[in-house]
Amino acid sequence: MAEDATVPVAEAATVPMEEAATVPMDGEADPGAVPEKKKRGKPKDAMAPPKPKNANQVVSAKARQELKEKNPEAARDLAVMGKHLKEVWEATPQEEKDRLTAEYEKEMEIWRPKWAAYKETDHYKEFCEIKQDWLDVREKKKLFKAHSKQAPKKPQSGYMIFGGTIRDRVKEEVAAAGGGMGDIGKKISEEWQALSEAKKAEYDEMSAKQKEVFTGLYAEHKKTDIFRKFMEDKAKMDGRHKVKKLERTTYKEAPKRPKSAFQLFKDKVLKQVMEENKGAAAGELGKKVGEKWKACEGEQRAVFENEAAALKADYLAKLKDFKRKKVYTKFLYQRHLTRARENKQVHLREMPKKPRSVFSLFREDHKDEVPAGKGEGKGMSWVKAKYQEASEEEKAKYLQKEKELKAKWEEDVKAYKESEKFKEYQKTEVKIKREMTNEAMKVMTLKFLDTAPQQPPKSAFSVYVGEKRKAQAEGQEDAANEPKAKKQKTEEAKEELVKFQAEWKKLDKETKAEYEEKRKDKHKAWQEEAKAYMALPMWKEYMEEAKMLKVSVKSLLSQKKQVIKKLKNGMRLLPLPEKPTDMPQKPPSAKRLFIREKRNEVEDLSTIPGLWDGLSPEERATWDEKYTQLLNQYEEQLRAFQQSEDGKTYLKKVKQTQKSRTIAQAKDKFLVGQPKKPPSVMAMYFKQELPVLKKAQPELKGFELKKVLEDKWKNLDDEAKKPLQDKAAAADAEYEATSKLFRESENYKAYAKVLKRVSGRKAKPKGKAKGKKGKPAPTIPQPKKPENMPVKPPDAMKLYMKAQTGSGKSLGDMFKAFKELPEEEKKAYEDQASETQQKYAEEYKAWEKSEEGKKYLREKTTFGKRKRLADAKAKFLKEQPKKPPNAMFLFCAENRAEVAKANPDLKGLGPVQKKLGEMWSALSEEDKKVYTDKHAEQMAAYNEKRKEFESTPEWKSFCKIAKGSSKPAPKSKGKGKGKGQKAAPKGPSAPDGMPKKPLSAMNIFSSETKPSGGIPGIASAWRELGAEGQKQYLEKAKEQASEYETQMKAFQATADGKRYLREKAAFEKKNKLNQAKEKHLGGAAKKQPKPPPTAYQLFVQEKRQTVQGNVAEVAKTLSTMWSECAADDKATIEAKAKDLKEAYDKEMAEYKSSDAFKAYEKAVKSVSKPKSKPKKKAAKAKGKVAKVAKVKAKAAPKKGGKKAAAAADSSDSDVMGSDSDSSSSDSDSD
Known about the structure:
Elements: H1 9-12, H2 17-20, H3 55-70, H4 72-76, H5 78-91, H6 94-118, H7 122-148, H8 158-176, H9 181-194, H10 197-221, H11 225-250, H12 261-276, H13 282-295, H14 298-323, H15 326-347, H16 358-365, H17 379-389, H18 392-416, H19 420-447, H20 460-475, H21 486-506, H22 509-534, H23 537-549, E1 565-566, E2 572-573, H24 590-598, H25 608-613, H26 617-643, H27 645-670, H28 681-696, H29 702-715, H30 718-743, H31 746-759, H32 796-803, H33 811-819, H34 823-849, H35 851-876, H36 887-902, H37 909-922, H38 925-950, H39 953-966, H40 1001-1009, H41 1014-1052, H42 1055-1080, H43 1095-1103, H44 1111-1123, H45 1127-1152, H46 1155-1168, H47 1185-1195, H48 1201-1216, H49 1225-1228
Antiparallel strand pairs: 1-2
């Protein structure tokens, strides 16, 4: 009924224009419905049992019919009719009235049961809904009618204006002819039809003028408080009507609220009270019933109260069942939407409207040009085409207008949000959401969570309290439980909890641990129940309804998903990995083993500590022995687990997680004020142009937008780029300055310290300025150690610590205790460590010679080289220019987006790349030439940049490292000997101006043609050229060689060239001397004896342990003690030093007379012999190394001469075999 209600024409004239579409006018009807006369007035229920008429109604009905027959004119006048009916009723004899009243009472007794039964039918509920809809419409009509009196009158149509001018005349004519109101309308319609079109146009013009005036007046009216209040009242009324309708339609299935004890009593005594008080009004009867209820006490009253309580309990159970239904959940959701909509209409109606977009402004200006209709070239299609054809200047004009409107709108919205109206909206919104959430959570709990497994105890103390309360409850089962007030129960529970806490504190650690084990068992059992419950279809339904009602889903399993804690900086704190199932668990202590065995024998765990205290030493020793056995077994299992794949993986994950957590916490703590890296120039340009491009070409996708913007940026001239580049440079400079200050702060130093501790690397700030950031060094996996590789044994200290396992001492205490051990006990550990170390050395030496050992050492050497190269690339090749892609790759990059768009069925990079390869193969040579030329241009630019980069210090540093890594280790002539030796020493670096040796003819051919197939392919292609084909490359090689010789001669004449040649000659000589020493003396059976200590050194060795302090203080004290030493003591030490010196001289003479040393001396003389130099005077060598060194030192120039002299000195000391402490130091150096 509410949807079909109508509004009279007079009232509709004042309905707001936005409401006119929703309120139908008189005469409107559903086109598909059968036309029938609209019934006016309050709806009546034809199915309801007719209610009997009382005496007044019977008399009035008879009198009204008689008046209509005798005087129809008087019957039409309501005042006359009412006066006449009153007179007839007063003239009716009292006996007649009593008779009619008695009949009425009898009929009512028959009607009341019928009416009560009818009220339970569905038809009655449907009629009530129709009636309420009619009442809602009537209330809405009243609101509109009240507003129409204060609003401007709606303009009349041309027909209505014409009817108003002739109405009086037509009325008189129709009355004279005996017609009615319908005839008047019919007559006016006939005369309107008879009017000419010109005359009708005059009336239509008058209507248009009225409408123009009305539009202006109504626009002003909408700004008044009257209209504002009307719209608020209307929104509130609509919301109230909709909520009430939702309640009526939803609660059809709800149980009927039960009667109270008083209502049950009233039903029983009301008939008796009515008989005792005939003719009394309903109010009087209610008072009499109330008096009887007050007088009803004791058992008589308890009967009604018990019956009411039973009815209420039944009602609540049925209400819970009703609220579990989906219809109630849907009702909550719809009610929430309705109230939220009402809140917006009431409080946000005056909120500033969002301005039009660029396209909308364009459409508004061209709306008069749009061809009518739908389809291509008409309506919106025409507007879109017109907009695409618009010039950039015109679009820019609309864009500027949009920006201005948007800026004004943002200011208006900001001001509106400060108003009381908006604050009231927010307050009401929070209230509506809270009401919805609370009710939804109740329903979800009632419907799904009541049947879920109950949460287990959260602590060991909770388990303890539960057991205590359970024991108390079992002891008080037979005792009479008197009802207690809620407050009293709370106080008693608090006192009881304090008592339990005191008892809990008295328990020992092992007993508490046992309660913790119980808690874990309960929690594990609950987890299994919860998992089973969450696998039911009911849980899926719960999640769907919770999502619809927008309430949080309660996760029964707190560990169902690993919770990742978020720090303040947004980083995530990862949880530790879950322990593997096969990881051994550390056994419990002896006392806990005892408790576990006894807990099944006793009811109260708190009594077990007393049993333990009562054990004899022998009984305790039994449990200690069990613990020791389990501990040894655990250690063996743990070692096996650590060596297993699962164990290694788990320990690695634990280490990584702990490292990640430490770094995350350090960043969160110390990098709070770290400056953020500014965007690049390209990013600034993208941010500026992306909104404009999106509005101009809304059909483009993300990658297409990026490509268009990249092309635009490339096509920009330097002047257009300069403002953005300057802005980016200023931002980078500011960032660098602030970053530098931040890196000097205490916070950053503390962060760097943490980072160095956990990762062994230097801390780097988040992001660097453009051009400073390089690729990180790639992670190169280390070679895996073979399983048969001997494991290095522990030293004496570690052996002692292992023996002390389980003593409870810390590492510091064990270290201190080891130092304080008696010498004999300490020597036992040292001998054991020495024995295991010697055995390890023998095993390792044998393992090194095995195939697996050799393979591992080779892999380790290769790993070291690769890592050095990777680190060098990451450090020095940050600015290395990137080699451009070849012609095919350029083609692919240019056409990939189009191919992907044209072939949406091609998913992934592989299929698209295959399609592009087919397209490239199908191209002609002319089409390919475009890309090959582009590639040639890019290669030329790349080669220039590469040459510039190769002249930088970074490139030279990298080459130096790469050269050192690529040199093979020196190998001896023996089988397989020399593997694993030190790398060859590096010579002096070539100066920048030194010419590079030219390529051979074959290499020139390879660099120009780049044949495939590697070295064999190049050699095959070179042979296929033949003599004629090779001639041009041979000539090129000859020219380059001639040019190289010329450049080399010029270089040798320069200061850099001379210095380099001298340093190279000195290096080669020193290298030969080192090789000779390694060859003749390295593998000799007799080693060069070490020089003995002096008398003072012997004294220092003896007295060093007695002196405390730093190095300077100790040296000073020992020097003083030596000078103050008694002559006899000093003589004893000197005699000992003399004996050591004589023994050393004897050993040295034997060493120099050995064949190996003589062969070494001969090799040194051959190396040290000077070469003849043409056209230059040189000192003549006498064959002695000392003179050779002297000549070298004199021949060397002042600059850089120190290196040559040092080389000569070192070789001299090696040859002569000096007795000083540094006799062999120089010879071993590079």
